[in-house]
Known about the structure:
The structure holds two protein chains of two kinds. By secondary structure, chain A is mostly beta strands.
Amino acid sequence: NAGVMQNPRHLVRRRGQEARLRCSPMKGHSHVYWYRQLPEEGLKFMVYLQKENIIDESGMPKERFSAEFPKEGPSILRIQQVVRGDSAAYFCASEITGGHHYNEQFFGPGTRLTVL
Amino acid sequence: EDQVTQSPEALRLQEGESSSLNCSYTVSGLRGLFWYRQDPGKGPEFLFTLYSAGEEKEKERLKATLTKKESFLHITAPKPEDSATYLCAVRRWGKFQFGAGTQVVVTP
């Protein structure tokens, strides 16, 4: 059973370009979470999605960032007009059901975004 | 807002030298507490979930315990392959809140 998959693993963008990060959850998992990790810092929650529905986007910057999890295909985290401060590792996690206190989340390998 | 604080920030151990990592939390009601291990350049790997105060779980050289205000991750007779950053997290309304982690280095 394949784990959580993310691609690309490394992404380099120039300031002002768009970055698209993809996440395929574990088989049978219908809930996806995105986190951002800056160097020497912990993981920070960004957004929680169910298929075709955003459950909680309280950690997402109000501008330039968006996320979706369509009925078919991977979840996408989109960053428009990237700036140097967006450089970070972005991790996706999935779980089998949503929001239960005791469910563990399984993480992908991350996408490392570098903005030049 | 819930707070999760891990200490120490970094820990250097000799192989075989046992030690403990601390995770203290302030939440409005005890929720599941989670421990993860993260190797450089990789995603966090799930280790344990603790559900209630007094609970303990073990996996190889690792043992996690939970009280009403903190959790400990005990590393017994560590080996170099135990070198990693150990993260703890609490959960509220779906999303995890992580501590900053403890970076553990075990030297031969």
